[in-house]
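Data deposition worksheet. Section B asks for the primary sequence of the deposited chain exactly as it was used as input, without tags or linkers unless they were present during the calculation. Section C holds the resulting structure in token form. Section D is free text for depositor observations; keep each observation to a single sentence. Incomplete worksheets are returned to the depositor.
Section A, Depositor: J.P.
Section B:
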Amino acid sequence: MSDEAVSDDVDENKRNFLTKTAGVVGAIGAAYVAVPFIASMEPSEKAQALGAPVEVDISTIQPGELLRVMWRGKPVWILKRTPEVLSALPSLDDQLRDPLSKESDQPASIQNELRAIRPDVFVAIGICTHLGCSPLYRPEVAPPDLGKNWPGGFFCPCHGSRFDLAGRVFKGVPAPKNLEIPPHRYISDARIVIGESEGAKA
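Section C:
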């Protein structure tokens, strides 16, 4: 075999070796680039936390007091209703658009007049169902700015929508639905979890 033929074989072997090596190195490099890229498309820890259930201590809420927490980036209200409020709610039915909450968003288990698991504790997402403003908690009866017929409830200052203390919308206002009720459950008399329905495993 001539020197030229040997040289051609060596060059061909080098070429094959270098081609295969470059391919392997390229594949490893691509994997190193792809893993962080794919990981970057997953929700961040903060985003995952925003969707996670929120456990809330309700033991210190006094009757008539409203506690505000955040869940999935939305304000959630927890209201401790008084016996007087509970007794007055049925008398408002003829003034409400959807008194039995048949067209509103809430877990099926609390589609009732009080819209609650426990009558004294009302939980709702604090966003008006009209254009997404956050209504004000106005529990006082017949204040001058809201009129003598105001029974106490939630008033949206953006466009005047009104809701009672079960989050049910009054007739003749822009909001089309009652306030949304998030899934929630009690893990004790003093603690609730926002974001999990009744019957969910602890």
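Section D:
The radius of gyration is 30 Å.
The helical segments are 3-40, 45-51, 83-88.
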